[in-house]
Amino acid sequence: MPLAIPLSKTGGPLFRQVYTGLRDAILSGAFRAGDRFPSTRELAEQLGISRTAVLAAYDQLLAEGFATGRRGSGTYVAEGLERSRPENLEKHARLRLSRFGRAAAVTPLPSERPLAGLRYDFTYRRTGVESFPFELWRRLLLRHARKATLRSLDYGPAGGSLALREAICAHLRRSRAVIAEPSQVIVVNGSQQALDLAARILLERGDTVAIEDPHYQGARKVFQAAGARLCGVPVDGEGLDPLRLPAKARMAFVTPSHQLPTGVILPLARRLALLEWAKRTSAVVIEDDYDGEFRYHGQPLESMQGLDTEGRVIYLGTFSRTMFPSLRIGYLIAPKSLSDAFTGAKWLADRHTSTLEQEALAEFIATGAYERYLRRARRLHARRREVLLDAIHRHLADRVSVTGDASGVHIVLWPHGRASEKAILTRAAERNVAVYGVSGYFLKRSPQAGLLLGYSQMREADIREGIRRLAEAFG
Fold first, then answer.
1. Residue 70 — very low, low, confident or very high, per pLDDT cuts 50/70/90?
2. Which of 102, 105, 194, 332 is the most exposed place for a label (fewest CB within 10 A)?
3. Whole-number Cα distances in Å, 11 to 8, 160, 197
4. Residue 187: strand pairing partners
5. Beta strands 208-213 and 229-236, pairing class
6. β-strand partners of 213
7. Per residue in 285-331, pLDDT tens?
8. What is the pLDDT of residues 89-133, one digit of tens each?
9. DSSP 193
């Protein structure tokens, strides 16, 4: 019988198109068990192609068990396929998910940004990349690719390239007062993976985790997926309030150098109080230093990890924020007692992070290029920050309070009075301005409206015009 197998010049190899057409005919029931296929010569003539392509398609069907050959008789549809073919191909089995799977299935992805595409987008999820030396980065990648040996192309150390771990230790010792040995550094695919590994290693279902409120949503989702019970600790003008920490918890998650989202900085007295609480309750502290490199008055604040004398702080950092987002390289500094566990967990997760990028990054840091780039980036962000604060003072001075302007690459505007966050966001979007509410960062209801504004990717003229239009949205 004639076969309707659509063929296309752009559809790939002809034998594969013929194979796919015959396979689909079998799965749809157009061909049934025991039905005889046309001879290879007949089908080649019918389709107007060479017999060689049809022979290759039949060979593939025979190899995969869709067909059987009978000497001197021809090629037939194999028996038993109807038992595995559903009556309705659109109806799929309902597979049971684990608790983690159910949590993952309902997790909103950060890329789903309904305001993306607006002209004046104060996005805060990414940092600006125009000052990054991409040409130098390309040369480093090419050089390491050219000199790669067969051994270097094999699986690498689970904890990461030794050269990169040494470079990270040296840089953090200078810039963040982090005290660590290379063996304590675990190179990961962004700080989000570091959070996932920490949850897997340290948390049992039902354990309590103290978390800033408001807080980084990615951390909340990881801990919830792990089955932890979250205890929100209020954040005020000086960050997390240690007097409100729970009497007992397995872990505390903090962003002390630039609290996410409020941007406030945790002072020394509170840092010491948090470490004392961890000692008293036998808890672990996760210090997420996602943009501590960017501070505009004096030197960047030193890390909590450098104050830790008991090995209770896990320090997280990422190059995705300081360099460019698609570079999925981050790191964690584990206490010595946990380094073996983190190394093993990293191996179980994905063996190791890409070796070529690690080696290039190690040279980028060791030669001083990374710190030179950071200095340029700080100057650029500082100029944009000044423009932003000036525009806010000009157009919104008596209607908002500002937090988070001392460091990082975002600030938060807190409207005075009983302003509606949703209404401001809607009116701003109508004026082609994208700003982001803080209400989603709270465990429960936000006590007041707040607007989170990033500025690292915006031109100065756009910052000025965006704030002018935002002021109109306040009514």
1. confident
2. 105
3. 5, 42, 43
4. 331
5. parallel
6. 234
7. 999 998 888 888 766 678 999 999 999 999 999 999 899 888 999 99
8. 456 678 898 888 888 888 776 654 556 689 999 998 767 778 899
9. H
Q: How far apart are CA 382 and CA 30, in angstroms?
A: 68
Query: Could you tell me which residues come within 8 angstroms of residue 328 by beta carbon, excluding any fewer than 6 positions away?
Result: 189, 190, 320, 353
User: What is the 8-class DSSP label of residue 36?
Assistant: B
> Could you give all domains of the chain from N- to C-terminal order, each with its CATH number?
14-83 (1.10.10.10), 105-126+374-473 (3.90.1150.10), 134-371 (3.40.640.10)
Distance CA 66, CA 76 (A): 9
How many helices (DSSP H) and strands (DSSP E) are in the chain?
15, 16
Task: Return the closest-CA partner of residue 268 out of 302, 296, 319, 316.
Answer: 302
Reported as a pLDDT band with limits 50, 70 and 90, residue 360 is very high
Angle at 349 between CA 310 and CA 323, to 5 degrees: 75
Cα torsion 118, 121, 125, 127: sign: positive
User: How many residues in total does the chain contain?
Assistant: 475
For 40, the 3-state DSSP assignment is: helix
Whether the full predicted model's pTM is greater than 0.70, yes or no, is yes
Give the residue from 217, 226, 264 showing the smallest Cα distance to 442.
217
